[in-house]
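Session log. Operator J.P. requested a structure for one protein chain; no other inputs attached. Running the standard single-chain path with token output.
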Amino acid sequence: MENKELNDLFDNFKNQVEEIAKHSDKVKKLDFTCTLLNGTGFIFNYDINKFNKKTINYKPATVFNAVVDIISAAISIIFLIMFLTDQVSLIEKNTVINLFITTLLSFSIVFFVLRSVYHLFHASSNVRNPLFRVSEGIKLLILLNINTLVSIIYKINNITLVIFLSFIVCSLALLCMGIGTKVSFKIEMFITSLLPFFMLVSSTQLAFISSCILLSISSFIYIIMDGKEAKTNSIFFLLGLSLFVLGIYSLL
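Structure written below.
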């Protein structure tokens, strides 16, 4: 009786294995371990993600966008070298302004480098999403830096309010980023697109207005792309950043 039950049990197991083998293209994950009384062991592991990585040849998501972001990083490096070489500042020997400008350009270099690496990974790589999120976090720091820098330069009366509101907006964007859904991603991009407009409270100089619009577009465009982040690059962010830096230089 026991042998019959045992045979029926393993016959059922055999049928399940055969059924799984027939639908192997639909299997997502399978783990099997067997140990015999004599100590012999059998192990079978299958994971569709790991299997696909082995069978798919490496191909960058988009080389062109990676090159654009690498060039953007190079331009940011040039801006930083120019600033450090000339030791320019709006107020002579103002270490606070110098620190903010240096930090701004340094963060920009890191941002563009991360975005270029993001484009160089295979489209199915699990590394791409964390890279994109980290680069978005750095973008928020850059925009926060820009708003604070302009407020300090122009010494506006409500500088504390501008900085406080900028921090609130950044916090909301980071909160949405942490949720990790498509809807929260779009909300995050919308919130981030509003952040550059805070600089206009301090100055309505043409260069800053143009910079504000371009920096805003660099985030808003991801809402339109609807999950196709790899199809775009940071050209709008570069143009907005360049106009901002040139606007700062024009005040020297």
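Operator note: DSSP finds nine helices and two strands in the chain.
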